[in-house]
Amino acid sequence: MRVKCFECGKEGDLTIEAWCCNCGGAWEPAGIPPFDLNAIKKGDSSIWRYGSILGLDILEPFKRMGVGWTPLVPVKIFDKNTLLKLEYLSPSGSFKDRGVNTMVNQLISMNVNTIVEDSSGNAGASVAAHAARFGLNGRIFVPEYASPGKIKQIADYGVEVITIQGTRRDVEKAAQAAIMPGVAYASHAYHPAYLAGQVTAAYECWEQLGGKAPDWILLPVAQGGQFLGYWFGFSYLLQAGLIEKMPHMVAVQSAQVAPIFHAWRKGLGDIPGVEALGPTLAEGVAIGKPVRGKRILQALRETDGRVIAINETEIIDAQKLCSRLGYFIELTSALAVAGMKHLLDEITEEEDILLPLTGNGLKGVPKIYSG
Q: Rounded distance, CA 236 to CA 207, Å?
């Protein structure tokens, strides 16, 4: 798989040992071909309908997992035209399955049989599910504060779960220290094949909307894999002349841990690390410094985007609102719904808002939750 580093411009072939660039930057796919309508495998209702245009070393999965082609449902929220992308119906219960599926298949093509990952829950669950499906050995490092339900889900797949005290960054360091010869870092933050898998969500939405893009996309953002996947995907569609303009990309964060929000307000070109003001119910976005910070800010600038920071009460209220509509989502996923309320004066009656519902509410709640 050809990869490149946005930070320094280096390009080369992906290896197991060099899970990031020498400069510390995260790899991106370098060999993604132009979007081609004729390349879509119409009979395949998974992310692999786009297998030949993802820039991977393989065109088909080694085993079918059932990832992709999640429903897109039109509803009214705050009296606005809203499209709910039901990503929580993925096999492990979250959107992470898109990127993890392509990442694990790419790693298997490189003869990997042991993987490690660090996660607050959903990425770890997805990696663990894929390890079980593909017969891999797995070690998942999780923060001590993670939802007990998510930790149990990870463990039930049969992988080793290592609980780490401290910050989310401490968990990442522990996982990286476990990398050794024969062990691959299956990181949703760093791996380029994960990013390639997330591009498929944009392609699906475009097909499901009859060949057009939404006007706004609101997403909970931590490391930004899903956010950048949508941005890259719709960018490729724009380059192919298949849409007229890019959607406004909106990153929604918890006010307790909001590095993108603060960098955006200051007009910075990169995202400095921040310390959490305290625990957050939106545990999935408790990242003090995203590794693809420059790319996230670029996507925001080029799409006339927005960044919104949400308080804890708003998160709970948004989860309840979705439940009253019939969609039970986890608290992190509710960030995007809460973010809509901050944009009501900017979104017109004719415009469509895409809200990917990222995680299933049945996964449980963080230990700090008392509501």
A: 14
Give the whole-angstrom CA distance, residue 325 versus residue 370.
23
Q: From its phi and psi, is residue 121 left (phi > 0), alpha (psi between -120 and 50) or beta?
A: left
Q: Is the pLDDT of residue 333 over 70?
A: yes
CB 118 within 8 A of CB 171: yes
Q: Over the chain, what is the mean pLDDT?
A: 95
Q: From the CB of residue 11, how many other CB atoms can be counted at a distance below 10 Å? A: 14
Rg for the chain, CA atoms, rounded: 19
- Asked if pLDDT for residue 370 goes beyond 80, the answer is no
Q: Specify the pTM.
A: 0.96
Averaged pLDDT, 285-307: 97
For range 211-239, the mean pLDDT: 98
Q: Hey, what domains does the chain have and what are their CATH numbers? A: 2-53 (no CATH), 72-95+194-363 (3.40.50.1100), 96-185 (3.40.50.1100)
- 320/17 Cα distance (integer angstroms): 45
In this structure, the chain runs to a length of 371
